[in-house]
Amino acid sequence: MNTQSAHVAVVIPAKDEVDLIASTIRAARAIPYVDLIVVVDDGSTDDTQSAARAAGATVVRHPVNRGKASALETGASVVAMRDAEGRQPRLLMFIDADLGETSVQTAPLVGPVASGKADCTIAVLPKQAGAGGHGLVTGLSRKAISNMTGWSPTQPLSGQRCMTREAYEAAKPLARGWGVETAMTIDMLVAGMTLQEIPCDLQHRPTGNDFSGHLHRAAQYRDVALAVNMRRLRGVRVTSQYRVDPSTQRPGEPFCAYKIRPVTSE
Ligand SMILES: O=c1ccn([C@@H]2O[C@H](COP(=O)(O)OP(=O)(O)O[C@H]3O[C@H](CO)[C@@H](O)[C@H](O)[C@H]3O)[C@@H](O)[C@H]2O)c(=O)[nH]1
Ligand SMILES: O=C(O)[C@H](O)COP(=O)(O)O
Known about the structure:
The chain has a single domain, classed as Spore Coat Polysaccharide Biosynthesis Protein SpsA, Chain A (Alpha-Beta Complex). The protein contains eight helices and eight strands, in the order E-H-E-H-E-H-E-H-E-H-E-H-H-E-H-E. It has helices at about 20-30, 50-55, 70-80, 110-115, 135-150, 165-170, 180-190, 210-235; strands at about 10-15, 35-40, 60, 90-95, 120-125, 160-165, 195-200, 255. Helix 1 (about 20-30) links the parallel strand 1 (about 10-15) and strand 2 (about 35-40). The longest helix has 23 residues, at about 210-235. The radius of gyration is 18 Å and the shape is globular. Uridine-5'-diphosphate-glucose (UPG) binds near residues 68, 178, 216 and 220. Its cofactor is Mg(2+); Mn(2+).
């Protein structure tokens, strides 16, 4: 694909995001090549869906909450239905609903994917005021990705990602709930895709250090552990004989896990 022919669909999973969804949508419209914005209201109990519709997005709704991964799958299916026959499928840009007016800062994720330098780009966010974690979930995710593929991402949980339809398909079926980013990274790298982390000046609602923040992290830990263990059981990994030397890895550079591709019999 060349950048001239790129079309981008933004997919926004949203659960109870009435306060920020409209500004997130409006700012996302200014991302280059965006011609479709799909919001998946994941069983919100507030008026997220009306706010998203009023802001001009295509909105679909889960009548009950199914978790972020399921919302992404629904959104990607809606985009596939809207892709035109005979044209390259749109690039998918997954962004969270709570980015507000900073959502446009995901724009740098598009170029490397549109030009074919990367199959999937992942935003690295600046330090967020009020964030209270101790790196436990992030560490679990990073270590698992590194063990299985040799890549050591800076922010393995970041959900702001731009990807080709082919890269998305390599990650399907998506792991449940909060395990989705970790599993997606592993599955794409094992499938031979090239991933790249890119700094983006984004702000989102940070998870604090209060009781609900810790409950949220516990759920994240559970989902990441489950996604990783399922892959371990299935033997999903890039075997060491085919792996690139991890010491050649440069943060921010495109990364493909293979130095040579294994020969597979169909
Ligand atoms: O059941 C849910 C819960 C959340 N969301 C949406 O998912 C997004 C991310 O949720 P958020 O509460 O903002 O999660 P964070 O803990 O801030 O998320 C960080 O960590 C997650 C992985 O654990 C990633 O998915 C996020 O991109 C990353 O910002 C938001 O748009 C939510 O509205 C749903 O669609 N369904
Ligand atoms: O606050 C965060 O960054 C996430 O909830 C992950 O928490 P962590 O600090 O345990 O990685």
